[in-house]
Amino acid sequence: MSARRVVVFPSAAELGPTLAHLVASRADKALKDRGRFTVGLSGGSLVSMLSKELPALPDLDCSRWLAGFCDERLVPFDDGESTYGLYKSQLFSKINIPDSGVLAIDPSLTVHECAEDYANKLKKAFPNEDIPVFDVLLLGMGPDGHTCSLFPDHPLLEETQKIVAPINNSPKPPPQRVTMTFPVVNSARCVVFVSTGGSKAAVLKQVLEGGEGPTLPAARVVPSKGELFWLIDEPAAASLTVHVERQSTAAKL
Ligand SMILES: O=C1O[C@H](COP(=O)(O)O)[C@@H](O)[C@H](O)[C@H]1O
């Protein structure tokens, strides 16, 4: 386990370019070391940030990228809630990632079949690993402390066998989703949380500093060998007392 780095930016506008540089630098390393770059994407606010910042990087070559989804909502791709649908129209259309480089769910299946099908796609994409080891997982955190579709007090938090699990009763709509489980999340080489806005301040304090009550899902993300970054803005960091790094402009991490 390497040290957690909490990096605070004045606003999301300064944070975005640093996120893009971080992804690009880990992609360069992965391409040199292993000939491909594997990245797990999350939905929510990350979609627009990545879709703005990644295409703005000069010379970004995504031809050997493999992008999966840390979680996905079980809705048709043309539904506004589909994370794949949003990335397809906002990001994949602007970068040179091949269709074969995107591992999407099959939304026509039942939620259980869909989770199994997506797990099989991951196993095929990572044939030499019992648990897929992604180069980078990009995560968000909801105001309740959930990450991926791993929600507080949900039995899925204890899942140790499956690499992808179905969820039928997500407290945040839509109710049916599939999600990577903690064994996959904590096997990644690098995990990057992005959390912005004052609505995240209280939960961020609990996740990063602890407190009473059960450990929130986002606080259970502790990569066993990989790096862990929290990229946050000043409003989200407002209540923190732990050590943080402050950056006023785009930085290389
Ligand atoms: O529902 C979801 O929410 C989380 C957090 O989203 P945010 O908008 O608060 O950043 C997201 O990471 C997850 O992928 C998504 O399915």
UniProtKB/TrEMBL annotation:
SUPFAM superfamilies: NagB/RpiA/CoA transferase-like (SSF100950). One of its GO terms (biological process) is carbohydrate metabolic process. It is an enzyme of class 3 (hydrolase). It catalyses: 6-phospho-D-glucono-1,5-lactone + H2O = 6-phospho-D-gluconate + H(+). Keywords: Hydrolase. InterPro entries: 6-phosphogluconolactonase_DevB, 6PGL, Glc/Gal-6P_isomerase, NagB/RpiA_transferase-like. Pathway: Carbohydrate degradation; pentose phosphate pathway; D-ribulose 5-phosphate from D-glucose 6-phosphate (oxidative stage): step 2/3. GO terms for molecular function: 6-phosphogluconolactonase activity. Residues 11-230 form the Glucosamine/galactosamine-6-phosphate isomerase domain. It comes from the Eukaryota. Its EC number is 3.1.1.31. Pfam families: Glucosamine_iso. Belongs to the glucosamine/galactosamine-6-phosphate isomerase family. 6-phosphogluconolactonase subfamily. Hydrolysis of 6-phosphogluconolactone to 6-phosphogluconate. NCBIfam families: pgl. This is 6-phosphogluconolactonase. It comes from Esox lucius.
